[in-house]
Each structure stands twice: as structure tokens, then as C-alpha cells.
């Protein structure tokens, strides 16, 4: 029986394993050094905040793996010997494979800051980071201030986590406005305001100079590069992005870039070795996507695709239209299609913001053809399959606005803003778009 | 703000402490004239019972209800043993001993509570309400900007099955045991709500009036907590208002006012088979004896169950009843909201759930069938089973123990929908319709799910919502009561309660396009079911 070995028990590896099991009878082993069972990394924050217990982050009950004959092996792979199709563990053990899937995910970036390995400095990625945080920041007596370095999604989540225990937080963001490499100015400014509303000491346009240590090797303070200001703190969170966790492959024959280089079939340069998820790097970017995408759903899709390939139904990885979502403290964010921070040459923009300053949408469309390109929504939930269909059908911005009510995904009885949105668009563009009433018939056309 | 909350908590606990002490105080004395009056009113023919009470109880003052009641109940028991031995069936006292004892105690009880009903209402209910509100209302500020704030729920001993939870469990179970089985011990509690009862129905408060009053009070206070906690969520606000309205107006005020006009006590929204004694002989007789109005209730009750309930479930799902109208649901969604995360999500519990709840439905229908057969044929037993016996078993096991003691008492341990999930025969009936023929579903928003598990954790019905959402599959489950919390706690906007079209392809199935990949996920799901 063919033995498929998967390194990494995150969403990519586990999805691959589940789908291979659905499609075949192959022997499957998942290796992880982090935890015994699969858990949802994105939910770690809720464990610290007391919304959930760690076991709630595990999507499958513990009996699931045995029942589905997916073997779990706890261990750290330090070497891949592709000639003998053999893995060597840090413990010295070895394991043979017929096909190997590398799904080792990411690790937090560190940029060689002085003091970055002191006690009390941590990322927020692994289960071990959560344990560390619980140790160094259990409450605001043990931790009288935390400094977070890096203004991305994990940074703002870490800030929210610490604030849930009333720990004062200083948030150092390199950019002039939060996440403005991704978000256009309106949205970014909205989130700046919301961060401050949560009593987070937001410092924009600053970099970390160094982390200072006390006598016992613990964090004492940090220094800001631009101002030289010293901020006393006991915990430093480094959340300046992630990069593929592939160091253990450096001495192997597998071709690496920043991640493991793969083609559209998710194959590496070595036969029978594949890579999926955050650690995989496409030779050529797909559409406007980045070659490496550390996104939950792309990991899942790669897992599903590779399972098909390995079970005799070769498939290219085809992630479809870009979409994503996040939550910034209390403000939910969804995006479908592309809305770049800066409009490209052929692009026109439409921005609408509610007077309460917590709800907005931003539509990107082609100014020559009026083709809809993408939408950012904050504080309004939108229906994925509506936008997916409109992008497939290359609908115009007028069509999208006319049918915007179909796409609304807010809970029932919520105040609807489509009328205001369409009115503003009409006013700005001298158009006469009439909003259509929501139609279940249109909504369910997709099937 | 913290100070105000701590003060509120102290006041609440003081009110609760006084409430708890009340059953232990008071004076109970029965005079020989009183005894004679009771004997005459009740038509008691047992001289043994009268003699027993005369020697042990009459003319003596008791300073707590326990020994007083024990004399009465043992007098009944002793007399009945002898009468039954001698086959003196007309002398046997058929009343439930503690209900009988309750009537006497309520009548002859005295002491500070009875003399100062208003004062003691304030010291119990009043302090409880004020304290709770002082604790709850500062949440507007302390919770921070509007949004989901479940911070610390799993660190709090009250909400993580810690010692406070166990204490609340013991307290609630104790309360229900007293309420259902020992009403004679809690006459003092009923005194404090007498003034309300008199102004509504004209009668002194029974333990059931006390329960109704307490129920409405608790729901109102905890509804305010819901309004604050979910102030950003209009679905939750409207739903909370709806259950509160139906509880106070339909389950409490209207029935009491009906009694004032000498009509039968009836809760117009309480549908059979949740209202399990609707077809019992005494109820049918009572309704028929009430002429046109009684007949109207009879017809309404049948139409409600047979026509209105299924049609509404078809259009809106069972939520229209379970989390918008029902009293049990109303308490679960207000008092029970802090405990929703405690419901068991394992596959095992789902298996238990399906056997139990459908078992109760079968039990309720069988019992009603036998009851109606007996009613129309005049037999008092069907194939050797006495209708009275089966009704008593159902009333005790399901009506009292399951719905009350376990249903609410176990909130702090098994979550707030224990009864609704495992026991309610009406929920089982609605669920079957919802599962197979309804427009209602929880729509999963394409590929946005990140498997975080908030939805599953906070599902009070123990549905593993995430298991569906992460597959891109809509949630169509018989047990879903449509409380909408999964949708509220989802950080990625993945879940929406909808009444769409009722055909299978859009209701259960997964649209392949959302996957992004050109794999037909739906086909794969079908293949591997």
C-alpha cells in the first residue's frame, strides 16, 4: 500500500489527508512537532481571550483520526533524504515514504533586532506562543505593558488579545497608517480610529530600534528608532509578517526560493515530493496573487487539489478569484476581487462610509469599461458567491450596484445601506442606477 | 464602574440570601375551628386523619413549615394505609400530600412575611432586581465598543462549570424540587407575590403564580443584559423582545386575567405536545364546561399544533416558536445565555439527543392516544395500562423532572437548552418539519470559514456548526432553534440565518464555484457520504 507522509498538521496537510482518505485506501501519516491533533491556528487568540478552550479549536474529535486511519506522529523532521525516500527525525528515528507532502506552514519573521530572543519576546503563531503569552502576560499585574511590533493582521489580533485582559498595549506600526500597504486610505484611517477607540497606544510610522534586557535576561523596554523614545514593557510581540517554515530543507535537494518551489500541480523539483499551503511558493504567480499566500483557504484548496492529483485525478491548483476576510477588533472586513491600496492606472474607485465611521465599502472598477474589479466591505457582510459570480460574468459596476441587495449577508433585520450607497454613486457619477429588491431567485441561480 | 458592579452584586446576593432564608421562618398554627372548616370544605371523611392532627398539631405553634407539613403529610399517609387496608375507599385522601399541606399552610401561616408582604417583596425581588441591574447596566461602558465580547467566559467560575456554576446548579435544582414537590415549604415565597396575584386574578398566589412571576422577572432582567451584550445586533434585540412579550403577556398576564373572568387558565401560545395535558380528561371537561370560550380554546389548541405550527416552520424554521415565542426558549435565551457554551458538541451527545427527544415525542403521542381512546370509550385502562398511571409517569418524569429540574437546573452544567435539545416533544415535532420541509437554513458564506470554532462553541443546541461551515455546506439541522448566535460570534461573516427556497439543491448542497478550484466539491461530498 502506498504510504503518503505529510509533514505538518495544519489546515493544508489535514485537508490533503482527509481528501486522500475520502478518495483512496492509501496509508496516510501526518507528522507534527507542534501538537498531537489538528487545531485551528486562527482561533488561538480566542483561547487567550477566554472565548474558547483550546479543545474548541480542534475541528475534529480525537477519535476521528483513528477511525479514518490517519496516523499521527509527533516529531520534528530534520532531514529529507529523497534518494532513499526517507525522513530523519530530530530524535534520530527514520520513516520511509512513497509520496511526501510538505505542509509545514510559516514562522514569524524576525529582522535581527537586538534583543529579539530575550525572555518575554514572542510571536503569535504557534501553540507554544500562546503558552508563552500565558506565562509572561497572564494579567496586567504581571505585565504592565506590552509592545507589539508590526502592523498586520496578527499584530492587531495580539493587541486585541492583550486588551481583553486590560493589559496596556503600545502598537508600533512601520507604515504611516495601519496596514496601508493593503488597505486604501479610507479603510486604513477607519481602522486607525478604531484601534485608538480600544485604548491601544497606536504609533504610526515608527520602527523598532532594539529590545532592552534587565539583569536576568528578560525584556525591560524597547527603543523606538525614529524618536529614541524608550518604552518600558515586559512583553514584546513580534508580528512583522511570516515566512515559509522551510529551514529544515536547506540541505536537501528540494528547490527552495523563499518557500518550497512548486508548479501548478504543487509538485516540487523532486518526483513524489509536493508542497502545499503557506510554505509553497509558485514558480509563477497565479493571476494577481502572490507566489506565496499565507491564507487559510488557499491552504485548504491546495490540500483538496493535491489529494485529487495523488488519487489519480491530476488537477492544477486554481484558487479562483481573490477573496479574504478578517476582523479588526469589532469591525469585520471582507474583500472580493481586487481593491489595491493605490488605484492602478485603469482603475476608478467608489468609496462610501457610514456616518458612524465604522461601516464602509470601497469598489474598484475599470474606468474605461466599467467592469467591476473588486470590493472591500467593512461592517457589512457580503455574499461570497454573488461576487464570485459577478466576477466570473465580468459584470459592470452598475450591475453590481443595481443588485447589491442580493449580496447583502448581514443578519436579518439589520439596517441596510444599499440605498445610501447607490445614491452616493449616482450623485458622484451622474448615473441613474436603480437598486433592485433582493431576489432569492437570482441569489440561488448559481446552482 | 467596577465599584457599582460590585455593589450591585452584593445587593443581589443579599436579596438572594433573604429569599433563601424565607422558607425557614414564620409561624404555622392550626386551630380546631380551622381544621373543621378545612375538613368540611374538602369533604374529608377520614376520622383517623382528623384525630391524628388534633393530637399532634392543632393548637400548637410551629416556627417552620417543615415539621408542620410533616405532621400533615404523615397524618395523610398513616390514615390512607389503614383505609386502604380496610378498603374504605371513600375515606382515602387522594390529594397529593404536599399540595394538601400547602393549602393548609398557606391559609394558616403567619409571621413577619405574611404581615409585611410589600417589605419582603422588596427585600427579595426588589433587592434582586436592583442588584442585578446595577451589575448589568454598567456593561454599556465596561464591555467597550459594541461587538461580541465573550472575554473571560472560560475563565469565570460561573460560566465554565466552576464552583459558582455548581453552586448555581444546586440552588436551581433545589428550587425546582421545592416548587414541584414541596410547595408547602415555600408558602412564604408565595406570600410576597400575593398582592400581584390578587390584583390580576383575584386569588392568593399559588406556587405556580410565584413561579410565573419569578420567571417574568428573571427574563426581564436578563433581557436587559441581552440588550446590552448584543446591542449591535438587531436580530438579537428583536428576538429578545419577542420572547419577553410572549412570556409576560401570553404565558402570564392573559391566563391570570382569564381566571379573573372565571375562564380556564390558558396560555394561547403553548402548543401541544409541549402542553402535554391539553387532551387530558380534566382539561377537556373543563373546556367543554366553559361553553363557547372553552370550545374556542379547544379548537385553537388543535389548529395551533396541526396547522399553524407546521406552516410557520415551513416558512421560518422552528425558530419562530423556539426562540421567538416559547417560554422555555425565552428563559434559555435570557437567563440561560451565559451558559450556552456548555452544551456538549460531541457526536455521542448528538446520538443521545436523537434517541431521547424522539423517544419523548413518541411517549407524548402514545400517552395522548391512550388518553383520548379512554376518553371516548369511557375505559380507564387500555390493554391493562391505566391512563392515570401513564399520565402520572409522564407528568413526573417529563413534565417535572426533565422540563424543570433538569431543563433549567442543569443550565450551569450542560448549557441552557438541555430540555429543548434532549426532551421537548414539540421541538422534536418542529425539528422533523424543519429538517425535511422548510425554507429555513443557515447559509454558509462560500469559502470564508477559517474553522475557528466560535460558532460551535456558542451553539446552545450542541450543533457542530463549524463542521458544516468549513465544508461550505449550509446548516440544515432539526435541532437548530435559530437563535442566531453562531452568526453573531462568527468573526468572518460566514453564517446567515435565511428563509430562502426550500429545494434541496440550494438548501443543503455546496456550490462548487465558491471553492475557487474547479473541483466539484459537491460531487465529492456525495460520493463520500
TrEMBL record, chain A:
InterPro entries: FAD-bd_OxRdtase, FAD/NAD-bd_sf, FAD/NAD-binding_dom. Pfam families: Pyr_redox_2 (PF07992). Residues 3-288 form the FAD/NAD(P)-binding domain. The keyword Hydrolase does not apply. SUPFAM superfamilies: FAD/NAD(P)-binding domain. Its cofactor is FAD. Keywords: FAD, Flavoprotein. Belongs to the FAD-dependent oxidoreductase family. This is NAD(P)/FAD-dependent oxidoreductase.
UniProtKB/TrEMBL annotation, chain B:
Residues 440-468, 471-500 form the 4Fe-4S ferredoxin-type domain. The keyword Repeat does not apply. PANTHER family: FERREDOXIN-TYPE PROTEIN NAPH. Keywords: 4Fe-4S, Electron transport, Iron, Iron-sulfur, Membrane, Metal-binding, Transmembrane, Transmembrane helix, Transport. This is 4Fe-4S binding protein. SUPFAM superfamilies: 4Fe-4S ferredoxins. The chain crosses the membrane at residues 7-26, 119-143, 163-182, 208-228, 240-259, 293-316, 355-376, 396-414. It comes from the Bacteria.
